[in-house]
Amino acid sequence: MESHNIEKLLDGYFEGATTLKEEQELRAYFTSDHVAPHLEEYASMFTAFNVASKETYDAPIVLPQKQRSTSIYRFAASAAAAVIVGLVLWTQSTQVDASISTNYENEELAILKTKQALGMMSQMINQSTTQLEVVQEFDKASSTLFK
Q1: Is residue 63, in this structure, part of any structural domain at all?
Q2: What band does 138 get if pLDDT is binned at 50, 70 and 90?
């Protein structure tokens, strides 16, 4: 084989662009006794690849067996945790409903307190919107400056 073709194949090999047939040609060339002197540095690499490809591992591979008993315990623990969380949430929701209904004995007083709270929120929102008008004016002025 011509050394020019081998150099092209080597470039393709190091870029990962060779086919299996081209790689076999490279292995055959570099394991033979007719290697060009300027390519002898690659001969040891391909010889090592050739030796490594013939190595095998003959010992049996033993995979650990799955233990079914632990998966059953996990499922049972998950189900028990879900039941406990459900019971806690259910008891909390019934206690909250009871506390809401007994918060005020007089319904008129409860309505009055609610109106007061809503009025305070309305005042705060109105103050916030007036402050936003100042920001909008500043935004208009700055946008005309930076255009």
Answers
A1: no
A2: confident
Residues 48 and 15 in one domain: yes
Into how many domains does the chain fold?
A: 3
Can you tell me the distance from the alpha carbon of 43 to that of 29, in angstroms, rounded to the nearest whole number?
A: 9
With beta carbons less than 8 A apart as the criterion, state whether 113 and 104 touch.
yes
Do 25 and 9 meet the contact criterion of CB atoms below 8 Å apart?
Answer: yes
Q: Which two tokens stand for residue 121?
A: 């929120």
Q: Which domain holds residue 20?
A: 3-54
Task: Identify the residue with better confidence: 89 or 134.
Answer: 89
For residue 113, being part of any structural domain is answered with: yes
C-alpha 58/C-alpha 146 separation (Å) is 77
**Residues 6 or more apart in contact with residue 31 via CB below 8 angstroms:** 43, 46, 47, 50
**Is 61 contained in some domain?**
no
State the DSSP code for 63: P
Asked, for residue 144, whether it belongs to a domain, the answer is: yes
Mean pLDDT of 137-143: 77
**Local confidence band at 97 (pLDDT 50, 70, 90 cut-offs):** low
Q: What 8-state DSSP symbol labels residue 60?
A: P
